């Protein structure tokens, strides 16, 4: 595919702006010497370029997307229509408060609904992504200990199965990371937890259900132990889809949480973002919440705020989408999300585990992890190979090589918005690939064969990075 | 109740039975009973699409959409070309995940590579990442990039947007690093103070300036660069991308890192988000940049292709040793910014910048005639501060006329902003209103 | 290239060459082979103080990063800047692609000779 710069022809372009209706005057400051090499292209050529790029991309609407840990559910169209209303898109963030009553109603309604779903007392929507929500939540914990003069608490405990953002966020919040082991059932090893709790413990970060798709059976004991040691409990909401409407983090001992509106609450991933990572907390932490917030239609500032994490109020249009989704599903529909997400995952697990061993053979939650360790040893076909083979069946591969505690892991999360036929087709694809692994493993290792591009040289890309288009090569030709 | 679950209740039950569960209670028996919600959630039951559409539209209608906007201060009312949302709304882009599976994500990967290239062209830098959340968080990440064991203090000009400064403060509370404010004089960085402060501090890691600054003033960036580099610190420039259509680029000035709010590039006001964090740097800093990067490579058949690269910098591999936790970014906003830049092209960008600044100069002179004197003497781009006898009174009078006036900095000063959307007629109306209100 | 037979080895798969009182450190063939294609190396700065048993830097493959553990305490006098541009040298010539030269050496970890290291690797595999 040509790059947009390779479609550019000098002198072409589009007339967007009017003539200047006042005297043209540039500032008497140093000006740029050379115009930027931006494309010069007609609207038709531009449209076709991006249509080609769109065809070479893959969204949820293109087919099954069982990407574990990412909750790639259907993104309802009505959400998009609501988020494009001029009454939202054309509002300046610094308009007078009495001219933005609709925006503050969106924020308030969403805040109250999500607090009810999670069992939290208050929430900020400033964090623009889950990772920033984690960072915010950890700063609340830090501010809390500091406010009590309890400054010796320097450690955040994180299980070895956690997402990489957890330890990275803890480090950004100035904490030392203490990694604790998972036991043979994939849950937190209670003895290891006890051994690491103490007056140095600031808190525990936990994803529950965890990243192997299991609800920790000792959860009440775990949060009690952390509290007894004087630490706080942080709930990573990445996997909330498994228990939404069934379990509230606030009821099982969690003090602070973040949610991913782009996972559980159906807002689109946009090829990597924008997401939204609201951070909720119990009353005693609300005094530390970030920056200027909307509460009951008014702008307020928490008295001991940790400060802002983004410029304004967060990714507002993402919040509009999430609210639309919640109004649609309602209090009666929300538990159905979890039930069907868990059902679909167990349905696939049950119908595949005879061929693909699951890491932990028990009822899973909204996702399950297969280990291809034995297949890799016996047939020299890796998790990566199977993932790539799925591409030839028109299925987006599951998450690969995560969590780190499972060798040759493939993590499957079907979500509740897939029908039984889609699951059955995917099961057939997995089984057909298994047959091929037995009959002709080399062919599996050579997948994909139907995609426009074959496997790429990632080593070359990282050794000698080319991170932008080289315009000089054009002139040389 | 609206729902997006395809399987009917009967199908759900058949599936449960098929895999050996009696019902949903049986499926969830692994969760301890004490952990489960008793009763139902306390918010309204689900509604049909017709009802939901009416409720949410009703909320939108409670907002006032101003016809004429003279307020900026970090969020700018630029024209969004028709191509931007037409392309940004394509479902393949909208609903895709992060392009980890390169073979089926070439479109998104290539669009990011094109975005990276355009940001480098705009800023004159060597490397751009695939985007960050917004201008403020991008500035905080830029500052963190310059820290090491010996260089631990961040210097920030008072003329940087206070929102950006606050986010930098929050990030530094996290990392236990020090932020020092360099005072402004006549609306721009006090160069003498900067030199004195930074020369005396061997722990100075960087200096962050805004270009144009919060007051709209175009700082003497060449002079600042030489002071900062004289102290062996790095220069970070927080830029307005439209202004770079005409102003000397950070690359030409010798900046080490460029951050900025990409919202002016076709993203609309949207009550503050989603916006776009721009982050670019020199080749020397390539391995230190945070966030995702797309690189060019070839496939097994020798075809050109694109992949996420230098991933070992990032949290999913380096975990607690990663320099940032960033995972999700603002990819779709970056795509829209690329479409914006490709639509307007080099000539259109220069035209937009010229319109913005020409109109600002016209409005400033008309307001001056109406008795609102410019507060500062420096060269400005498309924002400027004026004195005002009673900000509240003037802004209320403008609001009556469907005009969102400048941002009141206090009772007696207003920060005005013009874009290509402000017409001479509108600006004359603003000036006339000022005359009316203050009887000049 | 240094002769692998003459080198000393750590159990974390670094090699050490003694040059008078100073030492030169690299990673072993076994290490580079298990790490796969290396794409970047992070080295300390000249004058940095190293501590035996702690990371002196790390090496990156496409999907992983691994610490290089310093077998000695001492001060860095030179780093192999060639590796920054050509990390593939570590894969191609592990006993030539040295990482750092260290002086003021004290506190050396217990090191193995070539035969002992061979045996250790076989046991670990």
Automatic annotation (TrEMBL), chain A:
Highest taxon, organism lineage: Bacteria
Keywords: Oxidoreductase, Pyridoxal phosphate
InterPro entries assigned to the protein according to its UniProt record, in alphabetical order: Aminotrans_V_dom, GDC-P_C, GDC_P, PyrdxlP-dep_Trfase, PyrdxlP-dep_Trfase_major, PyrdxlP-dep_Trfase_small
Residues of the Aminotransferase class V domain: 151-270
GO biological process: glycine decarboxylation via glycine cleavage system
CC annotations in GO: cytosol; glycine cleavage complex
EC number: 1.4.4.2
Catalytic function, reaction form: N(6)-[(R)-lipoyl]-L-lysyl-[glycine-cleavage complex H protein] + glycine + H(+) = N(6)-[(R)-S(8)-aminomethyldihydrolipoyl]-L-lysyl-[glycine-cleavage complex H protein] + CO2
MF terms in GO: glycine binding; glycine dehydrogenase (decarboxylating) activity; pyridoxal phosphate binding
Enzyme superclass (EC): oxidoreductase
SUPFAM superfamilies with a match to the protein in the record: PLP-dependent transferases
Gene3D superfamilies: 6.20.440.10, Aspartate Aminotransferase, domain 1, Type I PLP-dependent aspartate aminotransferase-like (Major domain)
Domain called Glycine dehydrogenase C-terminal: residue spans: 339-438
Name of this chain's protein: glycine dehydrogenase (aminomethyl-transferring)
Species, as recorded: Baileyella intestinalis
UniProtKB/TrEMBL annotation, chain B:
Record-level Gene Ontology MF annotations: glycine dehydrogenase (decarboxylating) activity
EC identifiers of the protein: 1.4.4.2
GO biological process terms held by the UniProt record: glycine decarboxylation via glycine cleavage system; nucleoside metabolic process
Record bears the keyword Lyase: no
Key words of the record: Oxidoreductase
One Pfam family per UniProt: GDC-P
Catalytic activity: N(6)-[(R)-lipoyl]-L-lysyl-[glycine-cleavage complex H protein] + glycine + H(+) = N(6)-[(R)-S(8)-aminomethyldihydrolipoyl]-L-lysyl-[glycine-cleavage complex H protein] + CO2
Domain Glycine cleavage system P-protein N-terminal, residue spans: 4-431
InterPro entries in the cross-refs: GcvPA (IPR023010), GDC-P_N (IPR049315), PyrdxlP-dep_Trfase (IPR015424), PyrdxlP-dep_Trfase_major (IPR015421), PyrdxlP-dep_Trfase_small (IPR015422)
HAMAP family for this protein: GcvPA
Function: The glycine cleavage system catalyzes the degradation of glycine. The P protein binds the alpha-amino group of glycine through its pyridoxal phosphate cofactor; CO(2) is released and the remaining methylamine moiety is then transferred to the lipoamide cofactor of the H protein.
Similarity-based family: Belongs to the GcvP family. N-terminal subunit subfamily.
Subunit structure: The glycine cleavage system is composed of four proteins: P, T, L and H. In this organism, the P 'protein' is a heterodimer of two subunits.
Protein name: Probable glycine dehydrogenase (decarboxylating) subunit 1
Naturally occurring in which organism (per UniProt): Baileyella intestinalis
TrEMBL record, chain C:
Gene Ontology biological process: glycine decarboxylation via glycine cleavage system; protein lipoylation
Coiled coil: none
PROSITE patterns: BIOTINYL_LIPOYL
Sites bearing N6-lipoyllysine, chain numbering: 63
Cofactors (names): (R)-lipoate
GO cellular component: cytosol; glycine cleavage complex
Annotated family: Belongs to the GcvH family.
Name used for this protein in its record: Glycine cleavage system H protein
Protein species of origin: Baileyella intestinalis
Upper taxonomic lineage: Bacteria, Bacillati, Bacillota, Clostridia, Peptostreptococcales
């Amino acid at each position: 595919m040509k790059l947009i710069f390779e479609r550019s022809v000098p002198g072409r372009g589009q007339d967007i702006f009017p003539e200047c209706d006042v005297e043209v005057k540039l500032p008497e400051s140093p000006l740029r010497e050379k115009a930027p090499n931006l494309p010069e292209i007609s609207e038709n050529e531009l449209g076709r370029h991006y249509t080609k790029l769109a065809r070479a991309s893959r969204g949820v609407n293109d087919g099954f997307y069982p990407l574990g840990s990412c909750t790639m559910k259907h993104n309802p169209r009505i959400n998009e229509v609501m988020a494009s209303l001029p009454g939202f898109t054309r509002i300046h963030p610094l308009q007078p408060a009495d001219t933005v009553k609709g925006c503050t109603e969106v924020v308030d309604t969403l805040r109250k609904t999500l607090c009810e779903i999670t069992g939290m007392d208050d929430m900020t929507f400033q964090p623009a992504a889950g990772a920033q929500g984690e960072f915010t939540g950890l700063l609340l914990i830090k501010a809390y200990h500091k406010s009590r003069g309890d400054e010796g608490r320097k450690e955040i405990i994180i299980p070895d199965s956690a997402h990489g953002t957890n330890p990275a966020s803890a480090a950004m919040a100035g904490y030392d990371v203490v990694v604790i082991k998972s036991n043979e059932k994939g849950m937190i090893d209670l003895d290891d937890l006890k051994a690491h709790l103490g007056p140095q413990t600031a808190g525990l970060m936990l994803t529950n259900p965890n990243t192997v798709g299991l609800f920790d059976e000792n959860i009440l004991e775990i949060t009690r132990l952390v509290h007894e040691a004087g630490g706080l409990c942080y709930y990573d909401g990445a996997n909330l889809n498994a228990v939404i409407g069934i379990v509230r983090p606030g009821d099982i001992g969690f003090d602070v949480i973040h949610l991913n509106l782009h996972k559980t609450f159906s807002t689109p991933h946009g090829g990597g973002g924008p997401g939204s990572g609201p951070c909720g907390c119990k009353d005693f932490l609300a005094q530390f919440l970030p920056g200027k917030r909307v509460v009951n239609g008014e702008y307020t500032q928490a008295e001991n705020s940790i400060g802002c994490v983004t410029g304004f109020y967060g990714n507002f249009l993402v919040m509009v989408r999430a609210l639309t989704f919640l109004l649609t599903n309602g209090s009666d529909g929300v538990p159905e999300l979890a039930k069907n997400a868990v059902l679909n995952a167990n349905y696939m697990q049950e119908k595949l585990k005879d061929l693909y061993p699951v890491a932990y053979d028990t009822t899973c939650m909204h996702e399950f992890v297969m280990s291809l360790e034995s297949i890799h040893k016996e047939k020299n076909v890796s998790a990566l190979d199977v993932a790539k083979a799925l591409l030839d069946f028109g299925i987006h591969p599951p998450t690969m090589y995560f969590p780190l505690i499972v060798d040759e892991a493939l993590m499957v999360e079907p979500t509740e918005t897939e029908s039984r036929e889609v699951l059955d087709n995917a099961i057939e694809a997995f089984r057909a690939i298994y047959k091929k692994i037995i009959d002709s493993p080399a062919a599996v290792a050579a997948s994909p064969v139907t995609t426009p591009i074959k496997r790429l040289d990632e080593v070359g890309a990282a050794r000698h990075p080319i991170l932008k288009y080289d315009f000089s090569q054009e002139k040389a030709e | 109740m609206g729902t997006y679950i395809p399987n009917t209740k009967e199908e759900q039950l058949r599936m449960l039975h098929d895999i050996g569960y009696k019902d949903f209670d049986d499926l969830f028996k692994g969760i301890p009973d004490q952990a489960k919600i008793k009763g139902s959630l306390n918010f309204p039951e689900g509604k049909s699409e017709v009802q939901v559409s009416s409720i949410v539209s009703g909320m939108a209608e409670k907002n006032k959409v101003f016809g004429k906007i003279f307020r900026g201060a970090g969020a700018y009312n630029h024209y969004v070309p028709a191509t931007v949302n037409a392309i940004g709304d394509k479902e393949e882009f909208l609903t895709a995940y992060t392009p980890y599976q390169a073979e089926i994500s070439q479109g998104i990967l290539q669009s990011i590579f094109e975005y990276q290239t355009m940001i480098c062209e705009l800023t004159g830098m060597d490397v751009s990442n695939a985007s960050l959340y917004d201008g403020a968080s991008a500035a905080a990440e830029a500052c963190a990039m310059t820290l090491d064991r010996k260089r631990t203090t961040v210097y920030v000009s008072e003329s940087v947007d206070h929102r950006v400064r606050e986010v930098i403060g929050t990030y530094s509370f996290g990392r236990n690093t020090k932020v020092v404010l360099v005072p402004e004089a006549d609306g721009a960085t006090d160069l003498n103070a900067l030199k004195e402060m930074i020369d005396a501090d061997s722990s100075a890691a960087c200096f962050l300036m805004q270009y144009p600054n919060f007051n709209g003033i175009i700082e003497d960036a060449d002079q600042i660069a030489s002071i900062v580099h004289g102290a062996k610190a790095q220069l970070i420039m927080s830029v307005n991308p439209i202004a770079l259509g005409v102003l000397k680029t950070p690359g030409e000035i010798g900046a080490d890192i460029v951050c900025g709010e990409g919202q002016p590039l076709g993203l609309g006001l949207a009550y503050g988000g989603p916006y776009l964090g721009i982050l670019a740097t020199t080749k020397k800093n390539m391995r230190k940049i945070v966030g995702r990067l797309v690189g060019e490579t070839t496939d097994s058949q020798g075809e050109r292709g694109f992949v996420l690269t230098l991933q070992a910098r990032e949290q999913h591999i380096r975990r607690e040793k990663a320099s940032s936790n960033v995972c999700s970014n603002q990819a779709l906003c970056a795509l829209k910014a690329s479409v914006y830049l490709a639509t307007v092209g080099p000539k259109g960008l220069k035209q937009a910048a010229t319109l913005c600044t020409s109109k600002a100069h016209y409005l400033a002179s008309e307001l001056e005639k109406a008795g609102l004197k410019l507060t500062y003497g420096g060269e400005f781009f498309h924002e400027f501060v004026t004195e005002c006898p009673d900000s509240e009174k003037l802004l209320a009078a403008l609001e009556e006329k469907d005009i969102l006036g400048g941002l009141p900095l206090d009772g007696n000063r207003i920060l005005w902003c013009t874009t290509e959307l402000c017409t001479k007629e509108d600006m004359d109306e603003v000036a006339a209103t000022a005359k009316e209100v203050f009887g000049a | 290239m240094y002769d692998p037979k003459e080198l000393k080895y750590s159990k974390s798969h670094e090699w050490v060459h003694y040059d008078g009182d100073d030492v030169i450190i690299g990673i072993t063939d076994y290490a580079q082979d298990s790490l796969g294609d290396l794409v970047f190396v992070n080295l300390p700065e000249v004058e940095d103080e190293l501590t035996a048993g702690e990371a002196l830097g790390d090496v990156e493959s496409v999907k992983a990063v691994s610490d290089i553990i310093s077998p000695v305490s001492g001060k860095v006098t030179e780093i192999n800047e060639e590796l920054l541009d050509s990390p593939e040298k570590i894969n191609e010539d592990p006993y030539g692609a040295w990482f750092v030269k260290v002086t003021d050496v004290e506190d050396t970890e217990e090191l193995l000779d070539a035969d002992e290291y061979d045996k250790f690797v076989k046991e670990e595999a």
